[in-house]
Amino acid sequence: MLEGKAKVEETDMPVKMQMQAMRVASQSLDLFDVFDCTSIAAHIKKEFDESYGSGWQCVVGTNFGCFFTHSKGTFIYFHLGTLNFLIFKGATTL
Question: Torsion angle, CA of 59/7/35/14, rounded to 10 degrees?
Answer without folding.
Answer: -40
